[in-house]
């Protein structure tokens, strides 16, 4: 569990520099210089992610059961992860209505993904991993919306075709993850 927690601190810590405002981030960037800042940010992020993956794998070997989720939660998780994949696609498809309305679909995708996994898994490792990501995404989304208001950020109006493409790409991502990729990457086949 130590590796998992250390990895989460490193990974989410680097991704939290803007949560309290840009002052700390900009001061760190000025002190290190642009190149060293980006290098340090990248190295800490990658090292943190690797520690999260390793630590979660180790923690799953000796699970500590906290609760047993009801069987229906698996169906809710499937639905929520579909929403998460559409939100993920919305972060990358230009001029879609989802991004125009929600403004930060990537962070919302993480929020929905983490919640989906929390409702269907009852071990300590799942609670630590997905709880940390859920808490981070709530704080990051709030900070992002506050920053948008302070800077009066205007998002382009969404259009129908890019929105349809977004939903299609999200659905495709979800089907690939559900039917194949989750089993390869995570070791848990969802449609077994």
Give the helix/strand layout.
Elements: H1 2-14, H2 23-32, H3 34-61, H4 72-90, H5 97-102, H6 105-120, H7 124-151, H8 160-186
Helix pairs in contact: 1-3, 1-7, 2-3, 3-7, 4-6, 4-8, 6-7
Q: How many strands in all?
A: 0
- Which structural class do you get from the secondary structure elements? mainly alpha
Radius of gyration: 18 Å
Order of helices and strands: HHHHHHHH
Can I get a quick summary?
With 192 residues, this protein is mainly alpha-helical. 77% of the residues lie in helices and 0% in strands.
General description of the model:
This protein is mainly α and 192 residues long. The protein has 2 domains: 62 residues; 128 residues, no CATH class. It has 8 helices and no strands. The protein is globular. The model has no long low-confidence stretch (mean pLDDT 95).
Which labels suit this protein?
mainly alpha, 77% helix, 2 domains, 8 helices, 192 residues
């Amino acid at each position: 569990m130590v590796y998992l927690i250390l990895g989460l601190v490193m990974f989410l810590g680097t991704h939290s520099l803007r949560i309290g405002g840009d002052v700390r981030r900009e001061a760190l960037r000025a002190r290190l210089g642009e190149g060293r800042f980006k290098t340090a940010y990248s190295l800490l992020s990658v090292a943190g992610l690797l520690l999260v993956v390793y630590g979660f794998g180790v923690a799953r070997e000796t699970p500590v059961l906290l609760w047993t989720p009801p069987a229906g939660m698996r169906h809710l998780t499937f639905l929520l992860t579909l929403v998460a994949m559409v939100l993920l696609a919305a972060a990358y498809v230009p001029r879609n209505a989802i991004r125009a309305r929600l403004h930060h679909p990537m962070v919302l995708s993480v929020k929905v993904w983490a919640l989906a996994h929390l409702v269907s898994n009852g071990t300590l490792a799942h609670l630590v991993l997905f709880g940390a990501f859920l808490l981070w995404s709530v704080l990051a989304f709030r900070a992002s919306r506050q920053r948008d208001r302070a800077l009066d950020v205007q998002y382009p109006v969404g259009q129908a075709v890019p929105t349809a493409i977004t939903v299609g790409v999200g659905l495709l991502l979800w089907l690939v993850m559900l039917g194949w990729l989750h089993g390869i990457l995570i070791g848990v086949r969802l449609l077994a």
